[in-house]
Design a protein that fits this description.
The chain is globular. The strands form two sheets. A six-stranded mixed β-sheet has the order 1-2-3-5-7-10, with helices on both faces. Helices cover 46% and strands 17% of the residues. Helix 1 runs parallel beside helix 2. Bound molecules: acetoacetyl-coenzyme A. The site of acetoacetyl-coenzyme A has 22 residues, from strand 6, helix 3 and helix 4.
């Protein structure tokens, strides 16, 4: 049976593709378990990987949400367990020290939009559609959407999208601050690889620290910044970066 997440390496970049195109890459328990294996259990060999791109298979969707076909049999206890697992996996992605770039083509809805929001960077093709349509199913978002959407686009716009279930297009999502780049149709991977390649050339030590700092923005972030700024002066990468600048050459960072 084909894997629900395809894994491919391009030099220092890992490309993960959710591979259920017939179900618009809906996140069923198998997909969630595979994300859990990679990001929570850290069972994938990520030696020398400096950036990860996450996308959906096919032309129609990044992911159209949690797999609704699994919902009818759930009790409230099972629903809570599903949500708890989704939170654990998505939190692990958000905290991952290797940056994860969501490249959204087509629909990113419900748990799919929440997955993109858990990634460190969101890019999209201009055909992308974002939304939290859970309200149409009689349920609230279960994988962090009610909180991350507020953080990214503010309470007013988040409330509107969550209460109406409306979708927004890629340009609107960029204007609102939900995503940070839009490519013409068919050119999303080119953009994602360019951004990933740029990050891959930086110090992986500093990239990891930067992620933890930005994630701490509402939790003692200034204090953490002072600590991590100081700690940088113990690293070989800072010596390399400064020496490269002073000697007008390109830095080669080793993550030490
Ligand atoms: N779960 C399971 N199957 C899904 C799915 C989902 N979230 N989204 C789409 N599919 C399936 C469809 O059932 C359909 O399957 P069949 O071919 O076997 O009938 C196939 O994917 C293609 O979908 P459509 O025929 O519906 O395609 P469309 O182009 O007409 O519409 C769409 C596209 C607007 C995205 C529509 O599929 C849709 O509304 N999907 C559901 C979106 C949604 O409600 N997502 C939230 C899920 S709940 C959630 O995610 C909770 C949470 O926070 C964790």
């Amino acid at each position: 049976m084909a894997s629900v997440i395809l894994i491919e390496r391009q030099e220092r970049i890992l490309i993960l593709t959710i591979n259920r195109p017939k179900a618009l890459n809906a996140i069923n328990s198998e997909v969630m378990n595979e994300l859990n294996r990679i990001f929570v259990d850290k069972k994938e060999d990520l030696t020398n990987i400096r950036a990860i791109i996450l996308k959906g298979a096919g032309e129609k969707a990044f992911a159209a949400g949690a797999d609704i076909t699994e919902f009818p049999s759930y009790s409230s206890k099972e629903g809570q367990a599903l949500s708890q697992k989704g939170h654990a996996v998505y939190d692990a992605i958000e905290q991952f020290s290797i940056p994860v770039i969501a490249m959204v083509k087509g629909y990113a809805l419900g748990g799919g939009c929440e997955l993109a929001m858990a990634c460190h960077i969101r890019l999209a093709e201009d055909c992308a559609r974002f939304g939290q349509p859970e309200i149409n199913l009689g349920v609230v978002p279960g994988y962090g959407g009610s909180q991350r959407l507020v953080r990214y686009i503010g309470k007013s716009k988040a409330m509107h999208l969550l209460l109406t279930g409306d979708m927004i297009d890629a340009n609107t999502a960029e204007m609102m601050g939900l995503i940070s780049g839009v490519a013409p149709s068919g050119q999303g991977m080119e953009l994602a690889l360019k951004v990933a390649g740029k990050i891959a050339s930086k110090s992986p030590l500093v990239v990891g620290r930067m992620i933890s700092l930005v994630n701490a923005y509402d939790n003692n972030g200034f204090k953490k910044e002072i600590e991590l700024f100081g700690a940088s002066f113990d690293s070989e990468d800072l010596k390399e970066g400064v020496d490269a600048f002073l000697n007008k050459r390109k830095a080669e960072f080793k993550g030490k």
